[in-house]
Structures are given as structure tokens and as C-alpha cells.
Amino acid sequence: MIETQNLKVYFKSRDVVVKAVDGVNIKIKEKEIVGLVGESGSGKTTLGRTILNLQRPTAGKVLWNGKDVSKLKGKEEKEFRRQNQIIFQNPYEAVDIRMKVYDIIAEGIRVHKLAKNEKEEREMVMNALREVGLTPEEEYANSLPNQLSGGQLQRVAIARALVLDPSFIVADEPVSMLDMSIRAGILDIFQKLKEEKGKSVLMITHDISTIGYIASNIYVMYQGKVIESGPTDEVLDHPLHPYTKALISAVPLPDPSGRSTLFSTEVREEVEPYNGKGCRYYPRCPFAMNVCKEKEPELTGESNDHYVACFLY
Amino acid sequence: MNKVIKDLLSRKSFIFSIIIIGFFSILAVAAPALTTYSNPYLPSQQYVAAPYAVPSWATIFPQYKELPPDVSFTFTKYVSSDSSYVTAVNASYIKVVVPPGQTVNVSFPFKWNWSHPYDVVVSFKLLTPSTTSFVVNLYFNGLYAMELCPVPFPVEPAVSISPGKVNSVVFDSKYISPANSPFASELPLSEQPLAAYEFPSYALPKPGTYNVTVSFENTGSSKEVFVMSLPSYSSLGYVYGKLGTDDNGASVFAEFVYGARFDLYLSLLASALIIGIGLFIGLLAGYVGGFTDLSLNALTDFFLLIPGLPLLVVLISIFDVTGTIVNVNKPILILLIISLLSWPGTAKIIRGQTLSLKGRTFVEAAKALGEGNLRILFRHILPNLMGILFAQLAYDVPGVILAESGLDFLGLGITGFPTWGNMLGFATYNVSFINGFAWWWVLPPGIGIVLLSTAFYFFGSAMLDVLSPYKLRGE
Amino acid sequence: MSSTATSEKSVIRGRFHITGLKRYLLKRIAERLVLLFGILVFNFFVFQVLPTLYHINVAELYVPLSYKGLPRSELVQAIDRQFGLNLPLQERFFVYIESLLTFHLGISMHYDEPVLNLIEQRFPVTALLVIPSLLLSTVLAVVLGLYSISRQGKIGDSIVSFTAIMTYFIPSFWLGEIVLYVFGFYLNIFPTNIAEAITRNGVTLHGFAYWASLLKFLTLPILFLTVVSYGVRNILFRNNGVELMGSNFVNYLRARGISDRKIFYKHVTRNAIIPVFTRVGIDLAFLFAGVVFIEDVFNIPGLGRLLVSAAENLDIPLLEGDFYVISLFAVVILLALDLIYPLIDPRVKYE
Ligand SMILES: Nc1ncnc2c1ncn2[C@@H]1O[C@H](COP(=O)(O)OP(=O)(O)OP(=O)(O)O)[C@@H](O)[C@H]1O
Ligand code: SF4
Ligand SMILES: [Mg+2]
């Protein structure tokens, strides 16, 4: 239902061009949780924002049920907004802290005129709060954001998205700002969303371990490019790209499957700066070959649905 | 809301500002009740006391202790050389019978507790006989103040009086000259021009008991009958009211109060206008961005760069001299010009804040929810600018007050009625070696400006702190 | 891991740095020139178009109401011819721009002297007044600011800050007159009359003695200007310093084991002083326009006085020239500031 076609987003700040997203093709089907993994600065948030038409792409397009999202107008645009929601990385920044929790959640209902009257609106808000586990909901509804913890606020942000009954949600590292102990709770919400409500989710994370539980497909990004993608189990059990291997071995959690010991790849100290034309990973890649410096590897299918961009394969 | 108020009240600087602003607001609002002089710059409201009269409370200082206040009373006691000639007609009139060739003196004693006053005015009604063979003289203790003669053109310094009629006799030391007062004509020639200034100090030099004497001289051959009212005395003192007087003897307190009224009024209005323009331009530039931003920014820079004060001076003099704008009154002209030259700072700040808010995730979140630009502006950007707006409103007030006072000070602004600025101008203009330093006139408007400006500044800062949920960086 | 990204970017940045600087410079210069041009157009509008719109012969504005006893109408006609004021507006505009570009600023009607001469004469006087007080007040602002920061929130800080804010709002002409009275007349410490100050026995002093006496005469106004202008810089410095003291930057330095003294005097001061410099620069740009009142009160024949008297006499050639020079100066200084600022503030790049 959502796919990107050769999507590019370049930022020009001062005289430097930052290629935050550089030719990305991803696809999210209905009732599917897709994981997007990559280190900080790899362009995950930018990709998510561009998919939701919050950022104009430099090239390429985002298709929503076959329509270019940047060309939507009027009613269609509104419907797009209602059906596609985003949950931001930092809950403290994502809400207007002057507004009460109730108003934060009701905002979307009002914009889309989803409630016939105030009573109905209230019901919807309360339901949403309950759904994300903020009970007693009356109490939460009346509080201000700065009276809530990060986890609670992130739940508010989720409730704000859910109240519109969207079909697709971009969850931009929804747990990265939160304590370990409450992460599982938030992730459970998404799991339920998929299973009970049949929503699709693009789950962004830099921590590959969180995604293993819930995503069915996974994309690994490095410096604006997808360098490996495939079904989650496939990618996690048989990572191909040296970068993906490094990511998995860097997982700090005690890993029951023992994956990290399987692929313990050390990351090379950067010895030379990137020359602008080769594989983006070669300055850090322990397997770098001469060809790696000369041109960029394409994303190619390795086995069923498992793609990788590396000259090793 | 409660929390906001609590937060505000916990700040000493806010309390200070509220007290000061409140004080001046009350002065401004209650001005008509506080003073009877609504425009002390009108000649009719001047000389309520001597020029440069000190405030009455200043008499606690030794150097001002002896200064007289305004004094006015009607004499009730009189003594005469022979009581058979003088009889009371009723409570306020006496009849004087003067036998032929004789002179009858009626003296009115009074107690004087101070040093000399600014002027001396004695007035009474006098019914004269219908002959021309008499002279009435007025003495102040020994001083020969006035000579009244019943012919149309008497020999100077005598003054004419109509026979057989009720005459209003007024002796006013301010107007004496060798032509109308023997006192003046008897002075040495060099001192004669100063007679009006010298009379009070000769007549009432220091505390003591003095007499005003009316002397009736009958030069004819039959008895004459005069009827006169008991005279009233009045003099302007060197002590007056709460803040003394200015160089025209007008009440400085009245000027100060009405000045506060005008200044507050003008500055709030101008600030509102400045905020209006600044908000419009800043919001538009910051939110729309792109070419709009570029051109509005250039416009702002332009207004920021033109030398404001000199330009103000030039514009106003051009308007004045050429009379191009005749049917706009001066305060409105000044209001418009000041606002037009002062909005760029505000616009820049609002633009910066808008830009910063616009880039925040919660605005993007609003967009993701499907909110339109207008809704985002009014529900998320503007409310978050409230603190800044309040602060700017408060910060702009001192600027307007200072600009307006500057103009008034240069004599280019308002001169027809009191403002703190023109008070400063007139007062400082009169500071000189000769006049000394009329601190009661020079200091209040300046202190008023400084206090009110500081108060508004603190008010603005407190508002900014309390009402801005997002710590916004402002320069 | 993220170090790759940064270092890669800095490489790119390094390569583009020079061209970036050049482009930045050109853009800034172009912007400021457009601005200057805008101001000139505006001046033209005020001094020439506005009167014309109201059917007023501009030449009449060039002539003071009375001038050397000559009949006014005759003068008006002469000036009409001389300055081409009866030409159509668009032609006059080119004459005006040309005269500014070639610095032929015309002859002041009021002073009967070339405008450029007048400006040249008065420039050093104003400079002698403004520059010492600019330095003094900056030093005062920083010293008091350091005191405030080190005693943040205590009574000493409150008093110093409160005083600074008060001084900022003092109408300079008012306090100036009082100061002049007290020190000049009452205590008689300073000379109050420039003519007397720079002459001995009726002869104008020369050389060093002249400048020394002038400086003595200017001492009071300089001190005064210092007091009324240090406030903003003091508050700016203090607030920045206080903010920095509570920032992560300082925590980080502390964590690295750098002593509080060193943090305070080196790092905090250095960073907090940057906005003060910017402010000083801006003040410098508006230098001539800013001292109008002080020159007026203390009777100093500087550029500010010149401007006010030009305005009061509607001496249009002098006004046009004066405004031009002031704007030009401001634009040049602001431009210089644009260039210097990134050098002193590491956080700002040529953007
Ligand atoms: N609005 C913007 N303007 C300029 N550069 C931007 C902008 N947004 C992102 N970037 C740059 O694009 C790159 C990718 O940023 P992005 O936020 O998408 O990374 P990310 O993968 O989400 O990282 P993180 O895990 O830290 O959230 C970064 O180098 C960032 O500096
Ligand atoms: S292409 Fe070469 S440098 Fe890039 S990841 Fe593969 S092996 Fe390493
Ligand atoms: Mg991100």
C-alpha cells in the first residue's frame, strides 16, 4: 500500500550536501510490520518523514495506493493524513506542551471532524487512552505533558495517532528515548495493532534487537542507502552485508540465540575518508576489496526476497 | 492559569513592576480627580503660585522653611485714628466720614509668618463721593503703594478713580510701575524697572505684623462720605502643592499626572501598533519563508538601518514647516511615525521565534495530523508566541516613551499640553546658573520615565519567562 | 560509529570552504548595497518627492526662512537653476545619485560651507567622544558582568543588574543636563563651554594643547555616555554568562577536571563576550545617529548636532549628505561585522 520509488532527499546546509536518503525503494504491505534499521544519521527519520509527505523529496516519489503523495490535494490529502500517521522519536518534542493531553488527542478528531458531538469526541479520546494503557484515563486526560513521564507521553503520542484509526503508522524509534523496562510495553502495543487491528507499521530503530520480535520484513540502511533487506528471520539469521553483521554483533542484550557470537565481525578503524564513488562502507569494512573503492554495489537479490548491496555476493 | 500567576508573584522583579505600573496607571486614570488643572500649559491655568515654587513638603528643609505659601484672606479687623469717623455698615462694609480738610486713616493689621511672597494683591470696593476734591491713598506699612485721584487724567503716578460710583480698587504689585505707583516712582531710576519684583520684599520682608492702610484725604470744604468693602488680600507664595510649580507658576504635579496619562496612553497605543505590524510581518516572513521571507527581511533591515531619531526629527520638521499634513493632529502624527520606525526589532524577533517554532517537531506533528496552515498558525504558533508578544509589548513601551520624550525635548513634538518629554525639555531648558536647579520640576518626569520603563522591562521579562513554554533563544 | 559521517562531511566542507566564503561575501555585499540603495531612494523620497507631491517647491526647502537679508524668492530661483530643482523628478533622481556617488554633496544653506567640509570637521570631535566611551563602557560592562555572574542570584548581582537596566532607560538629555549642572556649574569641575575650553587668552590652541583641552572638555560627556550606554552590554554579557554557567558545556568542562576559575575566566567569559562584541559593532554602526542628544546637551559641535541643526533648519543639502554618510558608514561597519563575526564566534559559519 505504501512504496517508495528511487526516493532521494538531499539537504543542502551551507555548502555541504547531505544525502540523507539516496535512492531508496521500500515497500510496506497491508497488515505488515516492516523494520528499518540503521545507525544514527543514516537517514531513517528522513525517510519516514518523506513517506508521510512531511518532507519534500529531491527526487523519486512515494506512492500511496498507487498515488504520488506529494501531489495529493484537498479531500484526498486529508484522507491520506488520516490514514497515515507518525509517532516521533522524542515524545517531549512531539507534543505542544501547552495543551492538555485531552486536547492533544482530540486535535486530530477535530481536524477530521470524526466526532459528531462533544460526547462522542470524549468517548473516542478516552478509548484511545485506554487502548495505550493510560488508565485511569480521566486523570491522564486532564494532565499536562510536563506532568507525564517519557513513556506515558509516548503513549499519548501513540493514542493521538490511533484515535484517527489509521491504516499505516510510521513509528520512529518509539522506544529509543525510553527506559529499557518500559520498552517492551510500548512494543506490545504495536504488536497488538498489527494482530488485532490489522495495521501496517514502519518500525524505525537503530537497535536491531528490538525489531526481531515484531517485524516481518527488515531494511538495513547505511548513509542514506538500503544495503540489505529481507524477511526478518532470514536477515537476522543469515546477515550478508558486513555492516549488518556488525550491527547484530553489537547487540548488547544477552542473546538467547547466540547470534552475536556467530557473526563476530570487528569494525575496522576508519583509515581513509570516503572517496565519493565507492561502496559507502569501505572505510570501515574489514572485507574491503579494490573494487569496493571504485564503484558502488547495487542492491541485488541473493536468495528469495533477501537483497544485499555488497561485492562479496 | 493559577500556576502562571503564582509563578509571576514569586518574582520580586514582577512585584516591583506591578507596583510601579499600577501606581502610574492609577495616577493616569485618576488624573481629573487628583488635580483641577487639566492643562497647566494654558495661560489660564498658570500662576497658581509663584514661578519655581517648591513643593509644600519641602519646607521641612531649612533653606525652604521661611518660604510663604499662597495666601488669601479678607481683612476683618480695622483700626482708625478716630473711631467716630469710621462705622461698620454691615459685616463687610464700612463707612468713612471725612470732615473737610482732614485726613482719616483706616488701617487693616495682619500677621505674616514667612519671608516675602511673590506678589501682593489688595483689592476692595470703594464708593466715592461725587465731588473731585479728595484723594485716597494706599499704604503698605510705610510704603506709599497707590494714589487714587478722582480726575480722568491725574498727575502720574496717581491713578484715576470715578467719583460718585462704586470703584473696584485693585493693587497688584506685579503690575506696578513709576506710572501707577508712588512706590515705584520714588525708587532710584536704575531700580524702577524692578519695582514689581521689589515691592513684596519691601512690603513683607520677614515674619511680623503688618498694616495695610487706606487713607482718605478731603481737600474740599464740605464733609465727604466714603463706603468701602473690607479689603481682601492675596499673594502667590513660593510653596505650592505636591510638586511645586514651573517657570510659569503652573502646577508641576498637574503636569506630571497629565504627562503620565498621555505617556501611558501613547506608549501603549504605539506598542500595540508596533506589535501589530511586527507580528504581521514577522509571522508572515517566518512561517511562509522563501521569497516572502527574503523580501520582508530586506524591508525590515531597511527600516532598521535608517537612522531613526534624526529621520524622525526631519520628518516632523518637514511636516511642520511645509504644513503638508495639516489636518492630522500632532499626537497621531507622532504615534504613526514612531510606530512606523520602531517595528523592525519586534518583527525580527517574532520572525526568529516563528522560524524556531515552525521547525519544531510538534508543528510537524500537527501537520501530520492533517492540520492546515491557518490552524497551525493559530493553534500552535501564536499561542506559543504569547510570551514573546507580551514581552515585546512591554519592551516597546520604554522605547516609545523615550522616542517621544526625545522629540518633545527637542521641541519638535507636543508642546500644547504636558507630556513627560516636554516637561523634561522645558525643565532642563530652564536649568541654568541663574535659575538654579528646580529639582521638583526637573526630577519627577525623568524619574517617572526611568521607573516606568524599568517596570515595563521587568514586566516583559517575567511574562516571557512564564508564558514561554519553550525556551526560545532571542537576541 | 557516527564518527564516519562527521568526518566525511568535514572533508566535503573543507573542500567547499573557499568558494563558500567567496559566495557568502559577494552575497552579503550585494545585499548591503541593495539596502544602501534602498535608503538613498527613501531619502530622495522624503527630501524631494514628498514636497513635490504636496506642490511645494523643493528649492524653498533649500533656502532657510531668512538668509542674509536677500529676498527669498530670488534665492529660490537661483537655487532652482543651480541644483536643477525644476527638472522633472526622474531626472532629478539621477542628478541626486550622481552627486552622492561622486561625493559632490553640495553646499549647506545654513552654514554656507560645503557639506563635505562640515562633515570632515565634525567627524573627529564625535569620534573623540564616542570611541573612548565605547571602550570604557564595554570594559565596565564586562567587569560588572563578571561580578554579577560570579555572584549570580545574590544581592550584589541584583543590584548591579538592576542598575544596569535603569541606566539603559535614562533619557540621556535629561540626566546629561543634570550632570552638566552639577559638575559643570555647581561644582565647577569641568569646562562647560567648548569655545572657552579650546582657547587661551582669546587665541585658539593648536596641536597637542588643542587636543588635550578638547579631551578635557569631553571628559564629562565621555563619562556620561559611558554610564548611559554600558547597561545593554552588561545585561547581555551577564545573561549569556549565567546561561552558559548552567549549560552542559560547563558541566562537560567540569567533568574534564578543569578548575572552576579557569572555566569561569576562560571559557565562559570568552563565549559570553561574543554577543557583546556584536552589540558594540552595531552600536558603532549607528554611532553618529546615537549621540545626537548628548552632543546637544553638552554643546559639542559633532556630527549629531550637525544633523539636528540641519533638520531644524531644513538644510536639505546638508541633510541629504549627512544621511548618506551615516548610512554608508553603517553599511560598511555592518558588512565588516558580517565578515568578522564568524571569526570570533566559532559557532557561526559563513552561512
Ligand atoms: N531538516 C534537515 N536539514 C538538514 N539536514 C538534515 C535535516 N534533517 C536531517 N538532516 C541530516 O540528514 C541526515 C539523516 O538524518 P536522520 O534524522 O534522517 O537520521 P536518523 O537515521 O533518523 O538518525 P537518528 O537515529 O539519530 O534519529 C543527518 O546527517 C542529518 O544531519
Ligand atoms: S562492497 Fe566491499 S566495502 Fe562494501 S560492504 Fe561489501 S565488501 Fe565491504
Ligand atoms: Mg531519527
Key terms:
B: 475 residues, alpha+beta, MetI-like fold, 2 domains, seven-stranded antiparallel beta sheet, six-stranded mixed beta sheet, 13 helices, 13 strands, 47% helix, C: 351 residues, mainly alpha, 15 helices, 2 strands, disordered N terminus, binds adenosine-5'-triphosphate, binds iron/sulfur cluster, binds magnesium ion, MetI-like_sf (chain B), Oligopeptide transport system permease protein (chain B)
Q: What's this entry about, in short?
A:
The complex is a heterotrimer of chains A (313), B (475) and C (351). Chain B is an alpha+beta fold and 475 residues long.
What does this protein look like?
Chain A: GO terms for molecular function: ATP binding; ATP hydrolysis activity. Chain A: Keywords: ATP-binding, Nucleotide-binding, Transport. The complex is a heterotrimer of chains A (313), B (475) and C (351). Chain A has 313 residues and is an alpha/beta fold. Chain A is 36% helix and 23% strand. Chain A folds into 2 domains: 2-237, Rossmann fold (3-Layer(aba) Sandwich), CATH 3.40.50.300; 241-313, no CATH class. Chain A has 13 helices and 13 strands. The longest helix of chain A is centred in the middle third of the chain and has 18 residues, at 180-197. Chain B has 2 domains: 2-46 and 250-467, MetI-like (MetI-like fold); 71-235, Jelly Rolls (Sandwich). The mean pLDDT of chain B is 88. In chain B, strands 1, 3, 4, 6, 10, 12 and 13 form a 7-stranded antiparallel sheet that branches. The radius of gyration of chain B is 33 Å and the shape is elongated. Chain C has 351 residues and is mainly α. Helix content of chain C is 78%, strand content 1%. In chain C, a hairpin with a 2-residue loop joins strand 1 and strand 2. The radius of gyration of chain C is 25 Å and the shape is globular. The interface between B and C is large, with 43 and 47 residues.
